[in-house]
Amino acid sequence: MKPDNDQKITNTAKEIFEQYLLKNKLRRTPERFAILEEIYRRNDHFDADQLYDFMKQNNYHISRATVYNTLELLYKCKLVQRHQFGQNSAIFEKAYGSRQHDHLICLDCGKIFEFCDPRLHKTEESMGQMLKFKVESHSLTLYGHCQGACDNPPSSKKTQ
Ligand SMILES: [Zn+2]
Ligand SMILES: [Zn+2]
Predict the structure, then answer these.
(1) Cα 42 to ligand 2 centre (Å)
(2) Under 8 Å CB-to-CB from 84, ≥6 apart: which residues?
(3) What pLDDT is stored for residue 131 in this prediction?
(4) Distance CA 34, CA 76 (A)
(5) Which of 15, 50, 59, 108 would be a feasible disulfide site paired with 46, CB 3.0-4.6 Å?
(6) Span from the CA of 25 to the centroid of ligand 1 (angstroms)
(7) What is the signed CA dihedral for 10, 52, 67, 72, rounded to 10 degrees?
(8) pLDDT tens column, 103-153
(9) Strands 141-144 and 80-83
(10) Among the listed residues 70, 67, 34, the one whose alpha carbon sits nearest the alpha carbon of residue 51
(11) Distance from the CA of 98 to the center of ligand 1, in angstroms?
(12) What is the per-residue DSSP string for 120-151?
């Protein structure tokens, strides 16, 4: 994606967030918007503590509680996606302007890969029709071992 397109996505995400905060009579603090901007600068998956550590290293004066509670708000207005992969803490990624995708997770190094299989959309449709169920979304995570690209081969397995 072109950088100016990224900027457009970030600006729209900020507008959506602003409207959400206004509507719910929540404070529109610069900290909350800094967190949103940081999330939209990234292209990866992260947990709340990783985001907090990153922001602290980059000299933002934002408390851990603010990071947690802003992620919660962003989740509520669908600007971030939240995943529960195995027993680990919740993993987030930006949602607005991103294509629908699912994940592969390496059990050795914890690396997260993304994939997109249009057949899943067809499954949603046909199952919805068959079971008279309005499908809103799905989540599919495949676990296994990344071949070659793995930083930590099984012999040096570490618990995450
Ligand atoms: Zn993802
Ligand atoms: Zn791996």
Answers:
(1) 21
(2) 90, 91
(3) 96
(4) 18
(5) 50
(6) 31
(7) 80
(8) 999 999 989 999 999 999 999 999 999 999 999 989 899 999 998 655 555
(9) unpaired
(10) 67
(11) 9
(12) HHHHHHHHHHHHT--------EEEE--SS--S
What lies within 8 Å, CB to CB, of 143 at 6+ separation is 86, 104, 105, 107
> What digits encode the pLDDT tens for the residues 51-89?
999 999 999 999 999 999 999 999 999 999 999 988 778
CA distance 138 to 101: 10
Amino acid at 19: Q
Place of tokens 């709340």: 48
Neighbours of ion ligand 2 (CB under 5 A): 106, 108-109, 111, 146, 150
How far CA 30 is from CA of 35, 87, 98, 132, in Å, comes to: 9, 33, 24, 45
Q: What structural domains and CATH numbers belong to the chain?
A: 1-98 (1.10.10.10), 100-160 (3.30.1490.190)
Q: Which amino acid is at 54?
A: F
**Residue 77 and residue 20 in contact, taking contact as beta carbons nearer than 8 Å:** yes
- In angstroms, the CA 47 to CA 74 distance is 14
